[in-house]
Amino acid sequence: MTPAMRLTFAALLSFLLALVTGWCVIPLLRRLKAGQTIRSDGPRHHLAKAGTPTMGGIIFALPAAVAALAFTPRDGGGRDLVPMLVALGTALGHGAVGFADDYIKVAFRRPLGLRAREKLFFQTFLALVLAWAAVRLLGLGTWVWVPFVNRTFDLGMLYYPFVLFLVLGTGNAVNLTDGVDGLLAGASVTVFAFYTYVAAIQGQVGLAVLAAAIATGCLGFLRYNAHPARVFMGDTGSLFLGGALAALAVLTKTEFLLPLSGLLFVLETLSVILQVLAFRLTGRRIFRMSPLHHHFELGGWSENEVVYRFWLVALAGVLLALWGLGTA
Predict the structure, then answer these.
(1) Average pLDDT of 295-320?
(2) How many structural domains comprise the chain?
(3) Cα 93 to Cα 209: distance, rounded to the nearest angstrom
(4) What's 137's DSSP letter?
(5) Cα 283 to Cα 306: distance, rounded to the nearest angstrom
(6) Can you give the pLDDT at residue 49?
(7) Strand runs (DSSP E) across 70-192, as ranges?
(8) How far apart (Å, rounded) are the C-alpha atoms in residues 144 and 152?
(9) Angle between helices 183-201 and 159-177 (to 10 degrees)
């Protein structure tokens, strides 16, 4: 089977499985009363979403995993399989942390879920395992490539805290973006399509298959998550996506393209940081509300207007990343 056929079949399988999984899982989540708690200080029209099933990230995470395992080549001494398993393990590990967080919120009615230090511990562990696997298991080294100037720098032991920062930052940035129906799922289709291309041109078939499966899994999930959402992905989905994205950047050695391909996630995070700093330093807010998508909602944009325009920002980021990739 050619690499192109593997990508196509994996993408198609993940998409179809996501549609079927959503059809089966959403009624189950409703029966289990796995409803989302809506923050009272958010946009008032979001209060109507209270009780919408959460933990819907399993609708695309599991199909993507099945499709990647089914169509990643087993030959070549694990050349394709091992990197894919490292990336998938990182993604599923983050998804498991998110699932635990969502489950605690729903089952124990604890609005904050896992404590911050508990989430930080598990995410740090997963990040360091990823860094070790990249350097020691896969032999990718501790160098990083800087686009546009097309230079490489060896970070040595500093590469480990660098990956830790990358993983923690990506996970939190992706998580912050999940606040409007369909926003994160749709943006993820574009970003993971980019990493499908990156891995494919590098000849990393396993990583390309995984990225393609995640992209189309998110596309299938949009069938249920587009406004008005019938299910939310929760931390189960957002942390899975953040972990997968960070792993793909590390394993394709495109760490410095991640802020470009994930431009939307960066802007959402910066809006939160600037809001907090401004309020602490001056007692005034820069935005009506953060993250950034809520600022525009409170400014009169409909949810669909926010989503479609922010998808264009995500696309612009991917185009910038493609430009940077072309400078190699």
Answers:
(1) 94
(2) 1
(3) 19
(4) I
(5) 27
(6) 60
(7) 143-146, 151-154
(8) 5
(9) 140
Q: Which residue has the tokens 């029209």?
A: 45
Sole residue written with tokens 């602490």: 280
pLDDT band at 221 (very low <50, low <70, confident <90, very high): very high
Tens-digit pLDDT profile for residues 117-142? 999 999 999 999 999 999 999 999 99
Instruction: Give, in order, the Cα–Cα distances in Å from 57 to each of 22, 136, 236.
Output: 10, 31, 5
Residues 6+ apart with CB under 8 A from 81: 72, 73, 74, 206
Q: Which residue has the tokens 């079949």?
A: 9
Whole-angstrom CA distances from 83 to 74, 210, 247, 253, 276 are 12, 10, 9, 12, 38
The separation between CA 121 and the C-alpha centre of its own chain, rounded to angstroms, equals: 19
Q: Which helix (H) or strand (E) holds 223?
A: helix 205-225
Q: Encode pLDDT of 162-179 as tens digits.
A: 999 999 999 999 999 998
Q: Where do runs of H (alpha helix) occur along 32-80? A: 58-71
**Residue ranges making up the domain that contains 82:** 3-325
C-alpha 294: how far from chain center: 19
Task: With beta carbons less than 8 A apart as the criterion, state whether 50 and 229 touch.
Answer: no
What angle separates helix 159-177 from helix 116-132, to the nearest 10 degrees?
130
For residue 145 the two structure tokens come to 């490539």
Determine the number of helices (DSSP H) and then strands (DSSP E) in the chain: 12, 2
Write the CB contacts of 180 (distance below 8 Å, at least 6 apart in sequence). 227, 293, 297, 303, 306, 307, 310
Residue appearing with tokens 């998804």:
95
* Close Cβ partners of 307 (under 8 Å, ≥ 6 residues apart): 180, 181, 182, 183, 186, 227
